[in-house]
TrEMBL record:
This is Class I SAM-dependent methyltransferase. GO terms for biological process: methylation. Pfam families: Methyltransf_25 (PF13649). Residues 60-149 form the Methyltransferase domain. Keywords: Methyltransferase, Transferase. GO terms for molecular function: methyltransferase activity. The keyword Transport does not apply. PANTHER family: TRANS-ACONITATE 2-METHYLTRANSFERASE (PTHR43861:SF1), TRANS-ACONITATE 2-METHYLTRANSFERASE-RELATED (PTHR43861).
Length: 240
């Protein structure tokens, strides 16, 4: 399914009926052959937006999966680059693809770092956290960054209500809620739980100063606004 290198429909069904961790362990060998892997154009747009703010020393990819975020971190960071994820299967793939990076298995809601990194990124992972869990992630990233460090991630504008994309995402999230209501363990994967206004407020509550940068290379919507923005959260040099 998706491509000759991607998982079969049966494999996806088994994954979807597993826990998030077990599901991604199963999917890991074929993950890069699915649309769930962050496209290079988004990684490259993020790199271009961050480049004027660098160079950085040490970088961290939060919820790193198979390591696609190294395409952004490696050109920007002169020192250590690392990834953290709770799936052993995904980390095994990442180690094979990027043997010079450091890979850490941990729950991102309890990040095991303190003032270690200058740049942290995450791609496509916030939908795997319930809204009530995001503050713990943001607090952990704030703690992991050195003063003056940056946490960045792309966020796309919601599709218009009249578009097929809007109803497809709404239908997916509804189906996932039904699945989690009737099946255990839960598989948390939602596309409509991370509105920009919500994550801005949560990042500010964690101690970040927050701005956004239009990712112009990803195009504009019909009303002229950008299809995607880079959320840029900075840990202040001195505490507020």
């Amino acid at each position: 399914m998706f491509s000759p290198q991607g998982p079969s429909l049966r494999e996806l069904a088994v994954q979807a009926l597993s826990s998030v961790e077990r599901g991604y362990d199963l999917l890991a060998p074929k993950f890069d052959g699915t649309p769930f892997r962050t496209p290079d154009r988004i990684l490259d747009a993020t790199t271009d937006a961050l480049r004027p703010l660098g160079p950085f020393e040490q970088g961290l990819d939060v919820c790193c999966g198979t390591g696609a975020g190294m395409r952004t971190l490696e050109p920007l960071c002169h020192g250590r680059v690392a990834g953290v994820d709770f799936s052993a299967g995904m980390l095994a793939q990442a180690r094979t693809a990027h043997p010079d990076a450091d890979w850490v298995q941990a729950d991102v809601r309890e990040l095991p770092f303190a003032e270690t990194f200058d740049l942290a990124v995450t791609f496509g992972a916030l939908g795997h956290l319930l809204p009530a869990e995001r503050p713990a992630l943001f607090a952990g990233v704030h703690r992991a960054l050195r003063p003056g460090g940056a946490f960045a991630f792309p966020i796309t504008a919601p599709p218009p209500v009249a578009s097929a994309g809007y109803w497809a995402l709404l239908g997916f999230d509804a189906a996932m809620r039904v699945r989690n209501a009737v099946w255990r363990p839960p598989f948390v994967m939602y596309y409509r739980t991370c509105p920009l206004h919500a994550v801005r407020g949560e990042l500010a509550a964690a101690g970040f100063t927050v701005t956004t940068v239009p990712l112009t290379s990803l195009g504009q919507r019909e009303n002229g606004t950008p299809r995607a923005r880079l959320v840029l959260a900075r840990r202040p040099v001195t505490p507020a």
